[in-house]
Write a sequence for this structure.
């Protein structure tokens, strides 16, 4: 842990300042020690150079498994850049010299982009993925890692110029409440961008971004549906969404209860299914049993595991997410053409969430 991180940290329970005690320092970094709250006397250990504000990985153990198994699979700078821009509306170069929070950093693929672009970035994750991210970002500086729960972020209010969270908030017990907690980390005048899983994805894409419909339907760039077929699909988009959400929900009721190793083995079905699902005749199967359609087989297994394993997986509409920004006092709210990615600017310090 870099000592500079201390200026941003606060007790997740009472907001009091933290004091470092008995630090064991090596090459200027704190390897172990304790952070004591000066207000409520809570204590938080620092181990392996990472401050720990939670006793373990609680309901996100599937993510500890995931990121320890696929430590660098998704470290593809081009793909990360494309996803980062689509999910945040920002190019990393705009963040040079800014203080940035990656909320739910996983193995650190987006932190890597942001740190290389010259931002000071803090990665927080509830799972042991923070350890993987810390290893992956090794020598890049300044970057910081914290193991903590977004529902109780251990930061001083209004610390960050830019907060982003890509594919994370819907994995907490309550997405809106996680959003409200996170909003408090943004400095007045700062910005926040989030991407969460879409509900009614196809219908909403027809409504807000009709030019992206093909992308949503096909899931892979090589398969294109003619305009007239799209016109036939439009009136039944809501039914298609409902069918795929319901079948996925039923399957997840089983898969989230499987031991991770079994599910991991099962997800290898994504490797051959990719070829079957690309045959237009079998397209309806994609709605009934979702598998990742990434051309890289290892990535397919990872993404399929990522879909079927997490305990919580909520889905939201653009309207819902927009309303969260509004109630936290954000302005300049923009819907981005990746369902559901939304960005906004903090007009003032966000109110304390419920
Ligand atoms: C699908 S992964 C996304 C990781 C990263 N944003 C990316 O796209 O590569 C979701 C991450 O959110 C983290 N997460 C879920 N609930 C969390 C919480 N309450 N607090 C902090 N992190 C959480 C998980 O541990 C996991 O690493
Ligand atoms: Zn405290």
């Amino acid at each position: 842990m870099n000592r500079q991180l201390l200026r941003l940290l606060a007790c997740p329970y009472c907001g009091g300042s933290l004091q470092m005690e008995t630090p064991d320092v090596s090459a200027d970094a704190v390897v172990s020690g304790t952070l004591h709250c000066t207000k409520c006397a809570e204590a938080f250990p620092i181990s392996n150079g990472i401050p720990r504000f939670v006793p373990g990985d609680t309901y996100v153990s599937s993510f500890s498994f995931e990121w320890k198994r696929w430590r660098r699979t998704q470290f593809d700078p081009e793909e990360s850049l494309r996803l980062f821009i689509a999910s945040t509306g920002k190019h990393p170069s705009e963040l040079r010299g800014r203080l940035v929070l990656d909320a739910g950093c996983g193995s650190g693929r987006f932190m890597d982009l942001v740190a290389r672009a010259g931002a000071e970035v803090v990665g927080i994750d509830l799972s042991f993925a923070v350890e993987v991210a810390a290893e992956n970002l090794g020598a890049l500086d300044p970057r910081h890692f914290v193991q903590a729960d977004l529902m109780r972020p251990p930061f001083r209010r209004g610390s960050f110029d830019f907060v982003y969270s890509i594919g994370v908030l819907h994995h907490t017990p309550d997405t809106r409440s996680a959003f409200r907690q996170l909003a408090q980390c943004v400095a007045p005048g700062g910005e926040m961008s989030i991407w969460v899983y879409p509900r009614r994805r196809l219908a909403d894409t027809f409504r807000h971004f009709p030019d992206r419909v093909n992308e949503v339907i096909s899931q892979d760039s090589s398969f294109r549906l003619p305009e007239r077929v799209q016109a036939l699909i439009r009136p039944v988009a809501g039914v298609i969404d409902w069918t795929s959400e319901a079948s996925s929900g039923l399957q997840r009721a089983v898969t989230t209860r499987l031991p991770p190793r079994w599910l991991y083995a099962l997800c290898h079905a994504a490797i051959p299914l990719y070829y079957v699902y690309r045959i237009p005749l079998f397209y309806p199967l994609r709605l009934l049993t979702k598998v990742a359609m990434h051309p890289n087989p290892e990535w397919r297994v990872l993404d399929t595991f990522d879909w079927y394993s997490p305990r919580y997986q909520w889905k939201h509409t653009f309207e819902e997410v927009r309303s969260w920004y509004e109630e936290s006092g954000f302005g300049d709210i923009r819907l981005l053409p990746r369902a559901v990615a939304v960005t906004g600017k903090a007009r003032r310090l966000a109110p304390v969430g419920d």
In short: Residues 60, 63, 74, 104-106, 109, 124-127, 129, 149-151, 166-168, 171-172, 306 surround S-adenosylmethionine (ligand 1) (CB under 6 Å).
